[in-house]
Design a protein that fits this description.
Length: 65
Amino acid sequence: MLSEMSTTELVIDARNGDRDAFGILMRSFEPQIISVCRRFTKSEDDAEDLALETFVEAYQKLSQL
């Protein structure tokens, strides 16, 4: 099962095109990313938007991980 895989394994699978693996990574790190974004924006809506942009950029740059 994917959720039992290590972060490294999930990144490797995501790099190989496994969207489910990236989704698991996203859900795993979403609370921390939103928390950091909230410190910068002071707005929950803006923090969620910024977090989504962060994940989009991460997805686009998976090959660099």
